[in-house]
Design brief:
Blueprint (H helix, E strand, L loop, with lengths): L4 H8 L10 H11 L1 H14 L1 H7 L4 E15 L12 E19 L1 H69 L4 H36 L23 H11 L1 H21 L5 E13 L8 E13 L7 H68 L4 H35 L5 H8 L4
Antiparallel strand pairs: 1-2, 2-3, 3-4
Helix pairs in contact: 1-5, 2-5, 3-5, 4-5, 5-6, 5-8, 5-10, 7-9, 8-9, 9-10
Length: 442
């Protein structure tokens, strides 16, 4: 018995995929619609504002003050004074304004805060880079999860049809007396089990489609799937430690931790600077006018000043020393966190590299196992026809074939995602890597 054309079609997944969306299209839809990525973009924009905020601490500050006051004063002199009025009640308006400028000349804490803001920008950009790579991985995983779920449904349908054929074959043989009722019961049990598996596969497909919908904000339609012959490529360079070295140089997680350690170091110096003097250039211009006064006459006055102002903190209740010790402890914590990130990156890179290598080996082994399973099924069916194999042998061979094919599909998807994870581990994952994976789809 040969596999029917319908079964072959279901196994190979040949259906209308010509207009299906590919991985790149799905990724671009996620870029525009994923709320997690949108939040990461807003976080980056907020982080970039740290630099002008830090720079503002070194720039001059200018303030304007204005006032308008109604005055009601009563003056009564104890003795008459020659040349002065005898006192009385005076009601008059006074108004004025002043402009004050302060330009820091020496403020160590402000300068260190500015250099810290540069590092905070580095952290914001590295965090957004992580978000970009995370989106690529999430899209690829969700996309291939849908594909494997679709494959599982098609395999369950094909297996159900194959078992149905075997069930009919067992019934006919029982009717003519060449088989026992046990063969029919075995085939019926497998048919019922496969029906249950088909329902579970359909439910899983719906769940996976909804997970992809969360990323692209649309119900996914048909998706392009893997070609028949996925080309396996070893990581380049084919040296695990070289990948680890690259990760130590370009990993965004490591860049964030390094910037955090430098910020903590600068915080130690900034808090130590709480004892240092500050020197500012100060200038002011004031213009005041009053329509009356204590002597009964109005006045206009203008005042201009410019100078250098020194402020030297002497004692602040021990707060400066306490903050300095706190900063030193935080610096040590940041150093240890940096070392932990460095080791974690090395471990993750090695795991990602081995994931690609082992994935290749698994795909090759399953391809060979699939060929063997197809041969076993054909031999079992032929043996059943000549009476040397039982109905149970054929059912077992069918189960092995479909399980092996499903495992092969899963291994191929895992291999492709492992390639992306390896690039992400070293901080070089980009849209061009997704485009390379996309070429394997049709």
């Amino acid at each position: 018995m040969k596999l029917t054309p319908f079964i072959l079609t279901a196994l190979c997944g040949i259906s209308g995929w010509a207009q299906a969306a590919d991985l790149l299209e799905t990724f671009r839809a996620a870029q525009a619609n994923d709320p997690v990525f949108a939040a990461a973009r807003a976080t980056q924009q907020a982080g970039l504002e740290k630099l002008p905020q830090g720079r503002s601490l070194l720039m001059p500050s200018i303030s304007l003050n204005a006032n308008s006051t109604f005055n009601d004063s009563t003056v009564q002199y104890h003795q008459p004074v020659v040349g002065l009025p005898g006192g009385g009640n005076q009601r008059y308006n006074s108004h004025g304004y002043s402009v004050n400028l302060t330009q820091p000349l020496y403020r160590q804490q402000n300068w260190l805060a500015y250099t810290e803001s540069e590092l905070q920008v580095v952290q914001a950009e590295a965090q957004f880079r992580i978000a970009e790579q995370d989106l690529i991985l999430r899209v690829a995983e969700a996309y291939f999860d849908v594909l494997i779920a679709q494959d599982s449904v098609q395999l369950a349908e094909a297996q159900k049809i194959a078992i149905a054929e075997q069930l009919e074959y067992a019934k006919r043989n029982f009717e003519v007396g060449s088989a026992t009722i046990t063969d029919t019961h075995e085939a019926q049990a497998r048919y019922d089990l496969t029906s249950a598996q088909e329902i579970a596969a359909q439910n899983d497909l719906e769940i996976k489609r909804r997970a992809l919908q969360q990323l692209i904000n649309a119900i996914p339609q048909d998706l392009r799937r893997l070609g028949k012959e996925l080309k396996l490529e070893t990581p380049q360079p084919d040296d695990m430690e070289k990948w680890v070295d690259d990760a130590q140089l370009s990993s965004p997680q490591l860049a964030i931790a390094q910037a955090g350690a430098e910020i903590a170091e600068k915080e130690v110096a900034r808090n130590r600077g709480g004892h240092y003097p500050t020197i500012d250039l100060v200038a002011s211009y004031a213009d005041n006018s009053a329509s009356g006064g204590g002597f009964g006459v109005g006045s206009d006055s203008t005042n201009k000043s410019i100078g250098v102002q020194l402020n030297l903190p002497l004692f602040q209740g021990g707060a400066v020393n306490s903050m300095w010790r706190e900063a030193q402890a935080n610096h040590e914590r940041a150093r240890q966190e940096l070392e932990n990130v460095r080791r974690t990156i090395a471990t993750q890179t090695r795991q990602a590299y081995l994931g690609v290598v082992s994935g290749m080996a698994q795909v090759k082994a399953l391809r060979q196992a699939l060929t063997s399973s197809e041969s076993v099924l054909e031999a079992s069916k032929l043996g059943q026809e000549v009476g040397v194999r039982t109905n149970l042998d054929v059912l077992n061979a069918q189960q092995q074939l479909f399980s092996t094919r499903r495992d092969l599909y899963q291994a191929e998807y895992n291999y492709l995602v492992s390639q992306l994870r390896l690039k992400a581990a070293v901080g070089s994952l980009g849209e061009e890597d997704m485009a390379r994976v996309n070429q394997a789809l049709y």
